[in-house]
Amino acid sequence: MTTSAAASVSLPADWRDFLALTKPRVMTLVVFTGLCGMLAAPVPIHPVLGFTAILCIALGAGAAGALNQWYEADLDSKMRRTQKRPLPAGRMDRQSALHFGVGLAGFSLALMYFAINLVATIILAVSILFYVFVYTIWLKRRTPQNIVIGGAAGAFPPMIGWAAATGDVTLMPVLLFALIFLWTPPHFWALALFVKTDYANAGVPMLPVVAGERSTRLQIGLYTLPMVAAAILPWPLGLAGAFYGWSAVALNALFLALAALVTFRSSGADDAMVPEKRLFKYSIFYLFLMFGALVVDRWWLA
């Protein structure tokens, strides 16, 4: 359904459509990494305040997702994997999505400021603004490096969680930020390789569309190397223990192996894109397991 066709449909939106605007699957990872950043902090936080901080992170992420869908309704209508979202499907008008996103963002920031602290509020605000204005509005339609720069937006949650507990930011949350920032390109480009037709049809300059498969595969390999370094570095620096260290070594060895299969694979050798799909799926579990290992290391094996 085209954007104009969607605009003519007057299906009423319900709570499921507003929930869909928040991108719940993406929010799950955001909330988890934010929680792990909080639990890894050296200063414990009261459970009620901790719950409040995580709620603010979730609401902020949901606001960013809603504003992203508000701005990209025309693109979503052209892509098979996004055509059923509330706006392109015609179940909601753009103004409702805009008001919902802005209201959610304002509430999350106000609650974070009055209940937690200023540092966590500033980082949360930067993450929302970065995702909406830098990634969605400025970069996504203009450059194939949109994911590289825009990936910073999804890397803020552990810093927010850490700041909520401690009121400051030290080297450890910066390394967690770097891990997610460097993880985003190989994770997303693996997906982009097997849905590049969608991006081409929508006119989005994703790397496989603009530079081709060969260049994309090479970039996946190149970004994986510093990601692995950032993931393991807390161990030799004494910021995490042996459990985290050996877990990071094992998880990153598998990530490297899967990335190598994608990097050195001949373009068009397999239309099923099996190595790319395996890397994409594993990359999601990888981040959950990495941050989970950090929490186990901090709370049970310290």
Automatic annotation (TrEMBL):
Entry's localization field: Cell membrane
Gene Ontology BP, a term: heme O biosynthetic process
Topological type in the membrane: Multi-pass membrane protein
GO molecular function ontology, one term from the record: protoheme IX farnesyltransferase activity
Reactions this protein catalyses: heme b + (2E,6E)-farnesyl diphosphate + H2O = Fe(II)-heme o + diphosphate
Xref: Gene3D superfamilies: UbiA prenyltransferase
Main location: membrane
GO-annotated cellular components: plasma membrane
Membrane-spanning residues: 26-45, 51-71, 97-116, 122-139, 146-165, 171-195, 216-237, 243-264, 284-301
Highest taxon listed in the record's lineage: Bacteria
Pathway recorded for this protein: Porphyrin-containing compound metabolism; heme O biosynthesis; heme O from protoheme: step 1/1
EC number of this enzyme: 2.5.1.141
A Pfam family recorded for this sequence: UbiA
Miscellaneous note of the record: Carbon 2 of the heme B porphyrin ring is defined according to the Fischer nomenclature.
Role description: Converts heme B (protoheme IX) to heme O by substitution of the vinyl group on carbon 2 of heme B porphyrin ring with a hydroxyethyl farnesyl side group.
PANTHER family linked to this entry: 4-HYDROXYBENZOATE SOLANESYLTRANSFERASE, PROTOHEME IX FARNESYLTRANSFERASE, MITOCHONDRIAL
Protein's name according to its UniProt entry: Protoheme IX farnesyltransferase
Phylogenetic lineage: Bacteria, Pseudomonadati, Pseudomonadota, Alphaproteobacteria, Sphingomonadales
Annotated gene: ctaB
